[in-house]
Specification:
252 residues; mainly beta; 15-stranded antiparallel sheet; 1 helix; 43% strand
């Protein structure tokens, strides 16, 4: 997640007059989306410039996800996010919502994301509401890097295995869990990036590098060249972001 100016190259979401709560449905109560590169031809994540993992500090697994988590959004926008996590036999569902005021405009984004057991995104249903009205978007993925947006093929997203919502601090947990990097390893993790205001969808190139741990907290160097943005992300023992500099801080 990162905030940046909207660009016309994004794929616009569908406008809708439906009440937001009627759009999302699932096995539990319904809740409620970074430099462009040539499309990949496979879902393989490429490792680059990787130094050798430190002996005895390779792939420390995260604990099972908690039932819920919350973040206070600040600096880039003023808001709050709550997410609930449900595990089943084939993976997990994540349902949540963010409300915020950004550059004087208020918005609400609700989401329901389906993850496979390997943490690849398989579906994201997103509903956004602002003064301009209600929008909704559905992203479907096959887990091998091919996507559909509102039923239409989206070849620009080829090779992406994660969804990244501009409105959410939660979604930065997905690539970290999926990659399972050892200390010193880094990987490219392009994502299907969903804008908060209009739910436009675009490809976002990202890179994660695992740094030395801080006790039971994992630290990662994060880069999104498209936004000329880089920072250090700190994750708790559950693999959820504790501090996203300039954007969000964990509240629960």
């Amino acid at each position: 997640m990162s905030s940046a100016p909207h660009r016309a190259t994004s794929v616009a979401a569908t406008g809708s007059t439906q009440h937001p709560s009627s759009i999302l449905s699932g096995p539990t109560a319904a809740f409620h989306a970074r430099a462009s590169a040539p499309a990949e031809t496979s879902g393989t994540i490429a490792f680059d410039e990787t130094r050798e993992p430190l002996v005895g500090q390779s792939r420390m697994p995260f604990r099972d996800s908690p039932a819920f988590a919350a973040w206070r959004h600040g600096h880039a926008r003023a808001g709050f996010e709550v997410a609930f996590m449900h595990v089943d036999g084939s993976g997990r569902w994540v349902e949540g919502a963010t409300t915020a005021v950004d550059d004087g405009e208020a918005w609400l984004v609700r989401y329901r994301i389906r993850l496979a057991s390997d943490w690849t995104t398989r579906q994201a249903r997103v509903v956004g509401q602002s003064e301009a009205g209600v929008r909704d978007a559905t992203l479907d993925a096959d887990g091998a890097g091919r996507w559909r947006i509102n039923g239409a093929a989206a070849p620009a997203l080829n090779g992406c295995l994660d969804v990244d919502l501009e409105s959410s601090a939660l979604t930065n947990a997905f690539p970290v869990h999926r990659l399972g990097l050892a200390i010193g390893e880094r990987a490219q993790a392009p994502a299907a990036y969903v804008r908060a205001m209009d739910l436009g969808v675009e490809r976002l190139e990202q890179r994660y590098e695992r740094l030395d741990d801080d006790g039971d907290r994992q630290r990662y160097s994060y880069r999104a060249p498209q936004f000329e943005f880089s920072c250090e992300l700190v994750y708790d023992a559950y693999g959820l972001v504790l501090d996203y500099p300039g954007i969000a801080v964990r509240a629960a």
